[in-house]
Design a protein that fits this description.
The complex is a heterotetramer, with two copies of chain A (394 residues) and two copies of chain C (131 residues).
Chain A: E1 6-7, H1 18-24, H2 26-29, H3 40-60, E2 67-70, H4 73-85, E3 92-95, H5 101-112, E4 116-119, H6 133-136, E5 141-145, H7 159-169, E6 172-176, H8 188-191, E7 195-199, E8 210-214, H9 240-278, E9 283-284, E10 295-299, H10 305-314, E11 317-318, E12 320-321, H11 334-338, H12 343-347, E13 349-353, H13 360-379, H14 382-388
Parallel strand pairs in A: 1-11, 3-4, 3-5, 5-6, 6-7
Antiparallel strand pairs in A: 2-8, 7-8, 9-10, 10-13, 12-13
Helix pairs in contact in A: 1-9, 3-9, 4-5, 9-13, 10-13
Chain C: H1 4-11, E1 24-30, E2 35-44, E3 47-56, H2 59-72, H3 77-82, H4 85-91, H5 100-130
The chains are: A alpha/beta (394), C alpha+beta (131).
Bound molecules: pyridoxal-5'-phosphate (2 copies).
Chain lengths: 394, 394, 131, 131
Amino acid sequence: MENKRVYFDNAATTMVDRRVLEHMLPFFSEHYGNASSLHLEGIKAYQVVEWSRNQLAQLVQAQPEEIYFTSGGTESNNFAIKGLARSSKKRHIITSPIEHPAVLKTAQSLAREGFTLSFLPIDNKGIVKVEELESMITPNTLLVSVMLGNNEVGTIQPLKELSLITRSKGVLLHSDAVQAVGNMPVDVKDLGVDLMSISAHKFYGPKGIGALFVRKGTNLLPLLDGGEHEQGKRSGTYNTPGIAGLGKACEIALQEMDEFVPRISTLRDDLINKILHQIPEAYINGDLKNRLPGNVHLSLPYVEGEALLLRLDDAGFAVSTGSACSAHNLKISHVLKAMSTDVLCAQGSLRISLGRHNKQEDIDAFVQVLADVARDLRQMSPLYRASKEGDRHV
Amino acid sequence: MENKRVYFDNAATTMVDRRVLEHMLPFFSEHYGNASSLHLEGIKAYQVVEWSRNQLAQLVQAQPEEIYFTSGGTESNNFAIKGLARSSKKRHIITSPIEHPAVLKTAQSLAREGFTLSFLPIDNKGIVKVEELESMITPNTLLVSVMLGNNEVGTIQPLKELSLITRSKGVLLHSDAVQAVGNMPVDVKDLGVDLMSISAHKFYGPKGIGALFVRKGTNLLPLLDGGEHEQGKRSGTYNTPGIAGLGKACEIALQEMDEFVPRISTLRDDLINKILHQIPEAYINGDLKNRLPGNVHLSLPYVEGEALLLRLDDAGFAVSTGSACSAHNLKISHVLKAMSTDVLCAQGSLRISLGRHNKQEDIDAFVQVLADVARDLRQMSPLYRASKEGDRHV
Amino acid sequence: MYNEIILDHFRKPRNVGVIEDADGVGEVGNAVCGDMMTFYLKVKDDCIVDARYQTFGCGAAIAVSSMVSEMIKGKKIQEVMEMTHKDVSNMLGGLPPQKEHCSNLGIDAVKKAIEDYRAKKACNNTSAVQK
Amino acid sequence: MYNEIILDHFRKPRNVGVIEDADGVGEVGNAVCGDMMTFYLKVKDDCIVDARYQTFGCGAAIAVSSMVSEMIKGKKIQEVMEMTHKDVSNMLGGLPPQKEHCSNLGIDAVKKAIEDYRAKKACNNTSAVQK
Ligand SMILES: Cc1ncc(COP(=O)(O)O)c(C=O)c1O
Ligand SMILES: Cc1ncc(COP(=O)(O)O)c(C=O)c1O
């Protein structure tokens, strides 16, 4: 069964690229030294740390000293937001209602400590309303945190426009770019962000390693205190295989970006078109243009997302329900809610996230199966029957 | 040069065991799913997470639900101490002056937020004075944090006796057991600890993965907020290869403990004896009996640690100066200072930490080289000349 | 997450469908809460001779409706009224904790359908008497 | 951490030793701060004809003393007095930031030794005059 699988859940995590894994391997049992040690084993480890820091800096157009390695996107978001919060007297944070839980829950935990939160409104295409930002900023505002690529509906937020406002107001701008970095061109200078979160496992690097970009001169306290690694800002023995993998993933992403983005975007648009043509009443959520190259997010009214997912899984396709959230009991995605999506559409939502290893034939096979599964589940749905009878059950 | 290396820095980090690496490999590019996903790829990932949780629980005699995976020992220490601090109204923490920076700096950062710190005194063998604890505890005391095995001088602290006191006083006990777990038998029930930090790379597992044991019913707030992994206490996409490696390292440690501890302890004692017999004025720091199986920590007066380390490195031996601290400018170890070690001894200190892959012949070769290097560096030391002339320069 | 019994019922749900001339129909849940179930019963001599359903919901909801349809077919109404959601969950080999509420839905829908049947019967009897 | 020039001087320090009948001796540092250096000079016609030293300290301290001994040998005293720690650090191809202070030690010890030589000479001259 497994050998015929098609993996369409690249926004949840990606396969480690073979070249990345090969680059990591020597650092497990060969060059296994502690990168802080002064002996030969330590120096070998240290060198790969700095090599990777350079690769990442190049990928996002930062300086190497502006890169701090972390254990992943979640830590980077917590580090950025809590690190700023604890180093400042300002007590107001602006974010958006469509952020990943690693930003939302972090902001909420600060709210319990006395911070005030404001949420930038979202339009029904899943894009923040830039024009609302300026009037929300007060002298007490520390930070605006808005993601770059949304992990559910795939929308790309107008960071550049946001940063013009935050800069003119002297407020810091953080962006959770976990879905974007490695999957589309990202330039911290062009975007104007002051802090930016990155995670390797979203672009064919390993899990458990990420980074935070912190613009030079930005003050933030460590989240992990200890042996003073990373200029004293993030302690912990260097995860050298992980860092080596992150570096290699960056190198490959940079090399292949010009080929990757158009190829995947073309597959995505083809999939969107086929779904809209072949599946009645299917609906695509999120802006069709400002969208991550691999993201397709659709709603199939009258059926429920988990059932869809499991049927597709049986047919060999790994996809995700609308929300990648691990809280299984959270039924309706906070992102779709913020976009004012119809409840029936929100229940039957599906995220298909394409990646480096997907091919045209995967798309074609998938649409066939999806059409069958949708028909089948609708056939047994009382809501579908009701709608066909013109009834109103909702 | 490299092929004749002897690695004696196992307290800094260890080589990933081949069996551990083999167990990790499938989770990079084969079973690479997100452990929170519902499809087949996700389920495969989830299974290894729970398997590893069980292995670790068995190794330390905990319940699987009491294990929370983290990115390593530093995070575990920060999570334990900050997590308790932020969930309680009590504002007093007791720790020891010989803790790892991941505990000391964490406590200090809380002190800057208004917490009061007290330090349990240390005797000159590097062991905390248990009898002082009871009178230090006040109604405002939240936590006592004392490590199990010291990372510099290798002393094992009397946790069991400490826990009798903390329990009778209703105070929580955390232990940084990063050096101990996997390298000596550790039983959370027997020790009576409420929280305990663990790191895989200290016992032949990978870097960048660790765990915190939290006794059931203990209240602590997350350090990493987000997608509600780990019972909502530690978010972040599961680092499945890392977790798989941690689990395998635990399984092996448990299986081989009965063979490992006596073998390494015998090598250690032989090395100690040979050093004391063959190198004039050499001195062993730390209690000789309550000691990690692989730790040898010595002082060579009249010479400086880094110079020793580099000369030994040139001769093919990877060792550490007294402090494994990454702050290169910190000259005298806080641990030796707390033990009231003579300044001259503290400067010329060396940590030789033996591990699974070391052999008797490594010990014998090392003592020869150490004797030469010590003689050589002393020959050029003005302090040595002064002491031989009966002069007093210090 | 789901065991093999549940997955089997989810993959091949038994007795799916609508009985146009059902003796009792029961509907529970709605789209907002993410689960909805409609049970159709045919009753003869106080015995459930046919049971069909439609379900909108997650894997557990579908498996529960399938299992309930099998559990009640051929059973006396009285027996069915005594079934609990625990019986359903047990027959399915245990539901994940966050899915336990789905087992309520199945049994609730069937009981609603039985009430509907009883109400209709009472009504018909009254009509008959009046006739 | 260290470049190859530094490592070479650390591994094979030049001119190590003591000059028992030195014309000037200079000592800086102590065990507490972790570095100590003693320079011994032989001077002839205002020229440093021999330089030896003993060093207690890290790799950088040892390399610095070795490099300084080479830099000053055969030089006029006046030239040596104009040397700065930057010159030493440059000759070594640059020290790591946290080790920069070691380059001070070398030059300071030599200058102390020159002062000692001058003081002794002044003293001898006085004695000579008095004689
Ligand atoms: C937008 C976004 N932010 C943060 C995260 C968390 O990253 P990580 O899993 O590396 O902790 C994810 C993915 O899980 C994400 O998609
Ligand atoms: C006693 C002790 N605590 C904590 C740590 C930190 O662990 P990690 O390197 O996994 O963050 C170490 C080692 O570095 C240690 O020896």
